[in-house]
From TrEMBL:
Residues 104-300 form the ATP-grasp domain. Transmembrane segments: none annotated. This is Carbamoyl-phosphate synthase large subunit. Gene3D superfamilies: 3.40.50.20, ATP-grasp fold, A domain, ATP-grasp fold, B domain. It comes from Sanguibacter antarcticus.
Length: 342
């Protein structure tokens, strides 16, 4: 790729990447994957000085940034990328995705490729109503989805949940029409056909033209606070086909996590799409598809393997300590930086 106005702050050959949200499981997994690539300098950022992933990279490559919701978050991120000579940015925090994607051109202008889906893909996945509308049709199993207060001719029970939510917050089962009518009208909530069966997460990697290169289904065997702490990869043509078709329909480039859940008849239908690297990425990497590394090669225009097979593998997880000199803990940002929220 072309580097334009970088000051050569880091003398190492190869490329420099910045991983945001280094305290989250997705950030940690990307940092660890890319630290294993010989010619890559990994920088890590987070808004929290105690974010563990910061301390997986050498001192001098750890950066505290504004909260993703701060109005000048992207200005600061652009300045950080420019000052440290970043070639590729991996945003991993939900609230950062749209603000960063809106200004992708400004990142490109300073030689930074952003390894996250397009603004159009983000807008049609972060909103579960728009996602259902985009994917509905005879060729994709999409549960019926309406805005709350629009229709009552359902087979009950139904699911009611926020259009834009995460971590299962606000999801509930509504038993009958009277209970649904009692909820009134609210365009920020959706009503959805209940999918009573098994649930799967499929990690999908698509190239910059939207061609799906790999789809790795996982089942989450144990979830703790929304994070999968035990799981397994599954070879299943139907899950791979459906997730691939969903990714194509939303125009996915780079990486997303497509969640499917079985209907009573066993068909795997679309639950939602998280348009970012998932926290459970280490399992997909260990199963044979190192999506952070492949994604990096892809945005750098390097050749990718012709096929990306994976194997069936299970995992359990544990907490791990990073020990450091107390003096290494980054000083907090000035309070005005942190409180300066929109
Ligand atoms: N239509 C549905 N049928 C059955 N369960 C659902 C449905 N929608 C959501 N759920 C349950 O709620 C959880 C969270 O819903 P999801 O759509 O994944 O939103 P998010 O993870 O963003 O909160 C799912 O993992 C599933 O257990
Ligand atoms: Mg979900």
């Amino acid at each position: 790729m072309t580097r334009t106005e970088h000051s050569p702050a880091t003398p190492e050959p190869g490329c420099t990447v910045l991983v945001t949200g280094a305290g989250g499981p997705a950030g940690v997994s990307i940092v660890r994957s890319l630290l294993a690539v010989p010619d890559v300098t990994v920088l890590a950022s987070d808004m929290d000085a105690f974010a563990s992933g910061l301390y997986l990279v050498p001192a001098g490559r750890r950066h505290l940034v504004r909260p993703g919701l701060a109005p000048d978050f992207v200005d600061h991120l652009l300045a950080l990328c420019r000052d440290t000579g970043v070639d590729v940015l991996f945003p991993t925090v939900d609230v950062e995705l749209v603000p960063v994607a809106r200004r992708r051109d400004e990142f490109a202008a300073i030689g930074v490729a952003v390894a996250s889906p397009s603004l159009d893909t983000l807008e049609h996945t972060l909103d579960k109503y728009l996602l259902a509308q985009r994917c509905a049709g005879p060729d994709l199993p999409v549960p019926r989805t309406e805005l709350l207060g629009v229709a009552y001719d359902w087979e009950y029970p139904v699911i009611v949940k926020p259009r834009s939510g995460s971590g299962s917050r606000g999801v509930h089962l509504v038993e009958d029409e009277a209970a649904l009518r009692a909820l009134g009208t609210d365009a920020s909530q959706i009503v959805q056909e209940n999918l009573p069966g098994e649930e799967y997460s499929v990690d999908v990697l698509a190239d910059l033209d939207g061609r799906v290169l790999a789809a790795v289904p996982r089942s989450r065997l144990r979830v703790d606070s929304g994070v999968s702490v035990a799981g397994r990869t599954i070879k299943d043509d139907e899950l791979q086909r459906t997730a691939t078709a969903v990714a194509a329909r939303v125009g996915l480039t780079t990486v997303a996590n497509v969640q499917l859940r079985r209907r009573a008849d066993g068909t795997a239908a679309l639950l939602e799409v998280n348009p970012r690297f998932p926290g459970a990425m280490p399992l997909t990497i260990a199963a044979g598809v190192d999506m952070p590394r492949l994604c990096l090669d892809m945005v750098l225009g390097r050749p990718l393997p012709a096929s990306l097979p994976f194997r069936e593998l299970a995992n359990v997880r544990y907490l791990e300590d990073v020990f450091l000199d107390p003096a290494e803990i980054l000083p907090d940002l000035a309070p005005s930086d942190v409180l300066d929220l929109a």
